[in-house]
Amino acid sequence: MITMQAVVEVPNFDFHPLPPWPVSAAAPYSFMPIHPTSSDTDVGLFVSALICGLEGDHDDPVAALLAEGTLSQPGGLRLTDTATRAVVAPGCCAGLEDWREWVDILAGQPPWLGHGPTPEVEIGIDELRVWQDNGANRHIGQSIVVERSALPELLNSVHRDLTGFLTCVQTWSERNGLGSKGTDLVEAIDRNFHMTAPLIFPEH
Question: Do residues 183 and 191 lie in contact, with contact meaning Cβ atoms separated by under 8 Å?
């Protein structure tokens, strides 16, 4: 079975101010999935990672986030083959904000998925092979074969996860007493990461 998850990279808090709320314990630079059942500490980690992208220290980090014109988050989409246990994760500098570029595969345009390693989508007629790395390392690393016809539903499942995650963010903001800033934060995350807008696939 092939699964696809939206994931974000866990920041290294040794190099950033500690967040003002509890966060999930996770290894720096690992990937945390986000979905409709994300815990408060998962949401806290997600928002903290956003704050790590800001320059300087902030007395009110949420207000600082809302003052930013653009939010970004290292991460993207992670593929897993539960039968072979192969995993293809985003490379460095890939961002969750670009997750919808996977739709372009159906029009023959592979997305850029980061580097070091550099994941690559090999587009066939009926199948897609997603490599963890390209170039000389391509056949050394893991790869996953995805039926081309299965990609829309995989992306629809990610879309549902992201839409549900926004509800978790709203609940988290209420529990942390953010008031109207919490609602604004949900809207900013939705807008920057294109979570709830309709997912439109190219016609064949």
Answer: no
Count of CB atoms situated within 10 Å of the CB of 78: 18
Burial 41-55, CB ≥16 within 10 A → b, else e: ebbbbbbbbbbbbee
Strands (E), 89-126: 120-123
118: Cβ–Cβ under 8 A, 6 or more apart, which residues? Answer: 91, 133, 134, 135
Q: How far is CA 107 from the centre of its chain?
A: 22
Query: Residues of 92-121 as b/e, b for ≥16 C-beta within 10 angstroms?
Result: eebbbbbbbbbbebbeeebbebbeebbbbb
The partner residues of 129 in beta bridges, in order of sequence, read 122, 145
CA 58 to each of CA 39, 61, 169: distance values in angstroms, whole numbers, following the listed order: 25, 5, 21
Here the tokens at position 75 are: 């991460």
pLDDT tens per residue across span 2-51: 999 999 999 998 887 778 899 999 999 999 999 999 999 999 999 999 99
